[in-house]
Amino acid sequence: MPQIDVNDTRLHFIDEGPRDAPALLLSHSLFLDSTMFDGLSERLAGELRVVRYDHRGQGASRRAPAGELGMDTLTEDAAALVEELELPSCHVAGNSMGGFVALRLAARRPDLILSCAILGSSGEPERRGAGLEPLVAHLREHGTDAVVDSVMQMMFGDTFLADAARAGEREHWRGRILALDHPAIGDAAHHVVARKGVLGELGSTDVPILAVAGEEDHVSAAELSANVAEATPNGRFEVVARAGHSLALEEPEAVAALL
Asked: Which of 35, 136, 185, 240 has its CA 20 to 30 A from that of 142?
């Protein structure tokens, strides 16, 4: 299991594809991990060097104190990973929370980033912040056991949740969500809910930004993605049919085509 020490933490990462190919960094969603990109990487690693990783405090990366899980710190981790792996200027794509990181990279480290894609994400503060704090408190105290069905509804679209052919995938992710540590998952969720907006930073970046919404996203409205595309000089907005919040996992073929 590859691990790398960067920015005073240790990150699990997967590095696939030709080493001399253009590089793509993939940043995952809350509640999931870098394996959410298995299907996407399978489709892209033949022509790109695809690097995906687990955020600090999540997946197989090192656990971290609650105060070290903010979006700015996660962005610094991602930048340090790019530098430590000596990637040339790379493309970055992030799903949900990973998109919060990707936008900050595009705004603050354009020297590292050729293009940015966000999937089911936003450049704004969480509009439902206060309303989500009871869930955050529950996750810290009790974990995901009593709320796993709600989390599944948040993370996936109606098509994925109803598709009999994907029952095995649903059970896999349900099991992964049930196994999440607490209070660690609650601490990570708190920083997602408490994040600051970055729309104001995007107007001065020349990094092209693709903002993609899922047609069936129960969490992030399409207008949030559209607002990102409108806030940057080189923005583009797209919608993926039959996809919920976890676009890269639910519709990897469509997302790969857009990327």
From this structure: 35
Residue pair 232/118 in contact (Cβ under 8 Å)? The answer is no
Structure tokens at 87: 């990637």
3-state DSSP of the chain? CCEEEECCEEEEEEEECCCCCCEEEEECCCCCCHHHHHHHHHHHCCCCEEEEECCCCCCCCCCCCHHHCCHHHHHHHHHHHHHHCCCCCEEEEEECHHHHHHHHHHHHCCCCEEEEEEECCCCCCCCCHHHHHHHHHHHHHHCCHHHHHHHHHHHCCHHHHHCHHHHHHHHHHHHHHHCCCCCHHHHHHHHHHCCCCCHHHHCCCCCCEEEEEECCCCCCCHHHHHHHHHHCCCEEEEEECCCCCCHHHHCHHHHHHHC
- pLDDT tens, residue by residue, 184-242: 999 999 999 999 999 999 999 999 999 999 999 999 999 999 999 999 999 999 999 99
Tell me: the pLDDT tens digits for 101-121?
A: 999 999 999 999 999 999 999
Q: How far is 114 from 91, CA to CA, in rounded Å?
A: 5
Return the structure tokens found at 228: 């990102």
Task: State CA 61 to chain mean position distance.
Answer: 15
